[in-house]
Amino acid sequence: xxxxxxxxxxxxxxxxxxxxxxxxxxxxxxxxxxxxxxxxxxxxxxxxxxxxxxxxxxxxxxxxxxxxxxxxxxxxxxxxxxxxxxxxxxxxxxxxxxxxxxxxxxxxxxxxxxxxxxxxxxxxxxxxxxxxxxxxxxxxxxxxxxxxxxxxxxxxxxxxxxxxxxxxxxxxxxxxxxxxxxxxxxxxxxxxxxxxxxxxxxxxxxxxxxxxxxxxxxxxxxxxxxxxxxxxxxxxxxxxxxxxxxxxxxxxxxxxxxxxxxxxxxxxxxxxxxxxxxxxxxxxxxxxxxxxxxxxxxxxxxxxxxxxxxxxxxxxxxxxxxxxxxxxxxxxxxxxxxxxxxxxxxxxxxxxxxxxxxxxxxxxxxxxxxxxxxxxxxxxxxxxxxxxxxxxxxxxxxxxxxxx
Length: 404
Hints:
Layout: H1 9-35, H2 48-57, E1 62-64, H3 68-82, E2 87-96, E3 109-115, E4 125-130, E5 133-138, E6 152-158, E7 161-167, E8 171-174, H4 188-199, E9 205-208, H5 229-235, H6 238-257, H7 273-287, H8 292-310, H9 319-330, H10 335-341, H11 349-368, H12 389-396
Parallel strand pairs: 1-9, 2-3, 2-9, 3-8
Antiparallel strand pairs: 4-5, 6-7, 7-8
């Protein structure tokens, strides 16, 4: 597989840095907005401390993790059964225009915390006295009094404008998103002020966590089949797809290079002239389909190997002589040695396989029991001149003691 060329460290580290900055800009802000204002969050902008404060106060708050339509049905049933409304708090992480997801005419009370109002000349930090205690604010935003509707009443205001207001007790608006956030734990007046607004109706108090992305699993959907790739891609956001694409490209880049250390230079292999000559000659013989030269060369090599095991190294012997010595020392047939040392002419595939089987049989017999070397003898022989056959027989004959 062709490898993708690696860039130098000085060239690719700015690209990695740019990618990390891009991910932080696209991913981190969205992650923070979802948790800001949630009772599950321990961040300074979360409302986890106020949730614990309500439990210690004896008026616990419940978390709503269902759709707005489900809340309308629940609020209506609760009011019919208890003859009093329940309250739902919608806490926005930052000042935003309030577009209620719940029908204003539905049963129950709604409290919107973090409604966007225009900036005024009010000081950024201000303290306001209430029946619940001193309320500390860090915002200059106020709602002008002239923008209040006829049916709306002021709950908390100063000379710069309105901070909290309501409409017929069923809707309450507060412009500061961090009124009872975790960062204001030292200002108990803020916590008590929001607690009194939430519990004044006397019914259950719920905090909308569905607004922050928390969902209760629908038991009717547990048995449904899993999503296909097409359905998953259609329901996924662009940021998730971009992040998956970056991870996939990174894994592909690592898999193609397979290197995590310093690049090692390639060593030029040393050319062996003998091996190069043999390979070139073998290529020529293969092209002309000539096996005779190779077979004769292998036969001579097998003869040298056989003579070495028989103790006849360095002697020039004919195939027939070597076959007789093989028969004398091992008791095996001399014909297999003749077949071994005489490469068939011409040589077909069947003849080549038969010759190779002969080579294998002779080598296995040598491994099973190596014949003892034959000592040299100067005595002439009538049949085989200057061969150690007669000497081998004389060595094997028993020695007779001399008689006096």
